[in-house]
Amino acid sequence: MKMNRKIIGIASGIVVVALAGGGSIVAYQQSVKKQVNSATTELKQALKKQDYHQLMTLFNKQSIEAAGFTKETAETKYQTIFDALNVSGIEVTEVKQEKQSKDNYKVSYKVSMMTSMGEIKDEAYQTNLIKTDDGWTFDWSPSLIFAEMSGNDKVMINEETASRGKLLDRNGVELATEHDYQQVGVIPDKLGEGTERKSNIKAISEAFDLSVDTIESFLAPDWATGEVFVPLKTLAKNLSEEALSNLPKGVMISSKEMRYYPLGEASAQLLGYTGKATAEDIEKNPELTADMIIGKSGLEASLDEKLRGHNGGTVQIEDEEGEVKRVILANDKQDGEDITLTIDSKAQQIAFDSLNNQPGSAVVNEPSTGELLVLASSPSFDPNQMTVGISAEDYDKYQTNKDLPFIERYATSYAPGSTFKTLTAMIALDANKLTPEDSLSIDGLKWQKDDSWGNYYVTRVKEASPVNLETALVNSDNIFFAQKTLEMGEKTFRTGLEKFDFNESLKLPIAVPKASISNEDSFNSDILLADTGYGQGELLIPPVTQLSMYSPLMNEGTLVYPQLVKGQEKTPDKKEVVSKESANIVLNDLVGVVANSDGYAHELFQPNKTIAAKTGTAEIKDKQDTTGKENSFLLFMDKDDKQFMGLVLSEDSRKNGTAVSKTRTLLDYLVEHY
């Protein structure tokens, strides 16, 4: 438990409101009322804005001095008290004005404010607004800081800081926790004077990547003198023993507890990172206060309310003898909750490493539950560097990286390519437009329906004829699936696809765009219909959604939705999206993609485990007969035991390698442990 005990004095101030004389009694009364309203409004606005300088101009000098203050010292006391409480979101309500005499109005109001220890609600205040030679001014007394304060009373703050909850993997391994970071600081007296001081500061600048001006700015405050420790920088990675033994003169290493992510880059987009609440954060969420540590991105942000907890403690008024006159606020601290994810940290690390810092992603789940074992995206960023305070230069490197390390590729929309043929096959089987025995005679590597397609052709990689469903899946035959999709027709095909919840949101604590079939409600052309059948066209599906859509293959026709937080309510399974028979036919046919010696994923063959798979390539280009960028996909499944299934994406695979080439190590781990 962390406790900070602060003793804070009282504050005071003055207001001047000019009274313009009127000709008639009515005009005079209206003028007075207008000025009273104006003064009250100024008081309200100054409190809401926490503009204590303006506030103190609204009180008369006599009352401030009677309380033993000047405007300046009273303003400082306000600032000190409210800063210590981290006050934000001040609301002034129930403002009332009661005329006591022609030159005196009693003004009452209530104030609610958020502090780092909780809300102070409906604090009642009362003062007099009096006409003086200088205009209309309020009387000030200590009770206008907090009710019932008087004389030399003190505000005592005992704060207990809540611990942020941990993020754990499915086995209890810490994914986000607290860690003692090394903090670099200097002892001003040990820097020396003149030339020696300049030389030492330059050495510190070079050793810790801080500009000389930055170091001087930390040394500028009046308190930063003598033997005091002046912090300069918190380090994302601890210094080696050798570095510690060769510190520049004047440097001292301390420690600071902050958020830590053991997997580093491997889970950065998923977990996100924490930081201090900004004015913009507080505007969005009035419960926050300045400098409060909150989640800034990823699960740290979406689960922030549970993880953050609530600080506790007491705020009370004590008299000069230390006797408690009034308890303003008393809350027990509530530590944040530990949250267990479905993620397997070892699988997550292996998947990320296998992507080789090249653009891509990996998603793995348990088919029967939808529990996500892996959500990896590459390239990535160092969340620990973000937590301790990243330099503008390092942040700019991330921002300008053409491979976009901040994006979550597992939750970014892509054309799915040939992995999508598994859905087309199941829909066609259910619609009785296809049987396992059906075969098509296909000649050559390109085909078009008729001359109306002009120069447009559907192409395939392997020449084979006749072609049945198994051959088409193993060889990934675009022409076969284009022809079968056209035979089904748009109505049958689209009706089948809609069962897979296109244009629906996944119930996950991460943002995932909705999957879409086409830009319009209709394909509007046979070419687009045919292209969609083999996973191109205008299809856009995030990898995590793709894996969910393929789950009927492993669940006898039932679609199982993904889950990321253990115990969190998930969308109920959707039964009979396709028939059990159709799902099993396609699953069995996919075994050859790995088992056959000429299968596209044969390099993933496991001697003691039957793996079914479907490769896919989605080409992105402006027009046919040109070379475009290719994205490579691999869907792989534990056919016999049904303990795992996964989808790996490798962007620009001609340059970066196929998804198959980035899956072996991950698959070996899953086979051994699931």
Automatic annotation (TrEMBL):
Top-level division of the source organism's lineage: Bacteria
Localization (cell): Cell membrane
Keywords noted in UniProt: Membrane
GO-annotated biological processes: cell wall organization; response to antibiotic
Domain Penicillin-binding protein dimerisation as annotated: residue spans: 160-326
UniProt domain Penicillin-binding protein transpeptidase: residue ranges: 360-661
MF terms in GO: penicillin binding; peptidoglycan L,D-transpeptidase activity
Domain NTF2-like N-terminal transpeptidase: start-end pairs: 42-153
Source organism of the structure: Vagococcus xieshaowenii
Family statement: Belongs to the transpeptidase family.
GO cellular component: plasma membrane
Protein topology in the membrane: Single-pass membrane protein
Keyword Membrane part of the UniProt annotation: yes
Any Pfam family matching the protein: Transpeptidase
The keyword Hydrolase is annotated on this UniProt entry: no
Protein name (Swiss-Prot/TrEMBL): Penicillin-binding transpeptidase domain-containing protein
